[in-house]
Design a protein that fits this description.
Blueprint lengths: L4 E5 L3 H15 L2 E5 L2 H7 L7 E5 L7 H9 L9 E5 L4 H9 L4 E4 L7 H13 L1
Parallel strand pairs: 1-2, 1-3, 3-4, 4-5
Helix pairs in contact: 1-5, 2-3
Length: 127
């Protein structure tokens, strides 16, 4: 299945704006963005993404806590979630994958290739 709709969750305005522009312009993706885990959970009532990009470190609900809440909704049990994090240690990346992430993208990401990365992850997960 081709990824067409993405939910982007990041508390940093600049990261969110850059990622949203990259995904929509270079990936022709419909992007809904939220600045917190709490708002992401609310947004899932009206938006059904095919992939979720989720900041690992946010105030309030952290990325892992948000993932747990997303998975508690039967509609999103199988929706691929990709963490975005500034943490590049292999052990931290593996920890996030062990929580159920389809993959991890390390900040700073390349806005020219972000959409391509997201689509590849979506294809890999859905094949």
């Amino acid at each position: 299945m081709e990824i067409k709709q993405v939910l982007l969750v990041d508390d940093e305005d600049m990261i969110r704006q850059l990622a949203e522009l990259s995904l929509s312009q270079f990936g022709d993706l419909e992007v809904c963005s939220c600045n917190s885990g709490e708002s992401a959970i609310e947004k899932l009532e009206t938006f059904s993404p095919q992939l979720i990009l989720l900041d690992a470190n946010m105030p309030g609900l952290s990325g892992p806590e948000t993932l747990e809440a997303i998975r508690s909704n039967h509609r999103f049990v199988d929706t691929p979630v990709v963490f975005i994090t500034g943490e590049s240690r292999a052990s931290e990346i593996q920890r996030l994958k062990d929580l159920g992430a389809a993959d991890v993208i390390v900040k700073p990401f390349d806005p020219m290739t972000l959409a391509e990365q997201v689509k590849k992850i979506g294809h890999k997960v859905n094949d």
